[in-house]
Amino acid sequence: LEDQLRQAQKMEAVGQMAGGIAHDFNNLLQVIGGYAELSLMGVDETNPCWTALNEIQDASTRGKSLVSQLLAFSRRQVIHPVDLNLNVVIERLLQMIRGLIGEHISLDFIAGHNLGTIHADHGLIEQVLMNLCVNARDAMPDGGKIIVETENVLIDGDYANTHAWASPGRYVLLSVTDNGSGMDSRTVEHIFEPFFTTKEVGKGTGLGLSTVFGIVKQHEGHVTVYSELEKGTVFKIYLPIVGRKATEISREVPGPVFGGT
Ligand code: ADP
């Protein structure tokens, strides 16, 4: 619990700082990208400046996407929850995710039946899914497979008694599985910390998973990770179902797919 509190305070401080910087920086990138676009109107492909201007435009677009991650991170206090069917949210996002991960990686979606309704912020839930898929992509530079799966699971009293985060009831379980590089246990210990990254400078902010963690906590959910080097990683996210009741006895709470924490 102390760990979680420390984590929350750290995120709070980092969030405020990041928000301030990100906002100003976004404006600057807007100007840079805007002028590059304007200049491109005046030149054609034969002009030596054409490539350079395109590079500037690309870089400012990439910069803006990093900044929007920072902004999302710092804005995590404000959520606008609505009733959502996670299957519908994911269906609508699949094409965009396929674009993000590229053709060398396959993406399967296994939609759970009678999933139930969650009360959640649409944009933030999309962000969780995208962050997890982008990380999975980065863990599979030579290609691989991502499986996104939803399930309606019951957490019973026994389980809730032994797991501090859980209260009994029905949850939507979202899992994102990849068969990429995996992580060793020392890495896994740190992945939810702000700014922890193993990626090259400019490739990662280290904010993806702390954002995921923050969003899931705000939705009174829970996130777990199972990972094994050279085999792959599974992220599991539990989100409480609206009007859920723990009336049935069930052994549905899924265990680890393979090893890990
Ligand atoms: P970033 O992606 O910017 O590095 P994240 O917070 O999203 O920041 O991730 C932190 C670190 O967790 C990554 O740098 C990587 O080492 C590890 N990681 C996250 N997802 C995966 C995954 N699916 N497979 C292997 N490693 C992962």
UniProtKB/TrEMBL annotation:
<protein>
    <recommendedName>
        <fullName>histidine kinase</fullName>
    </recommendedName>
</protein>
<feature type="domain" description="Histidine kinase">
    <location>
        <begin position="20"/>
        <end position="243"/>
    </location>
</feature>
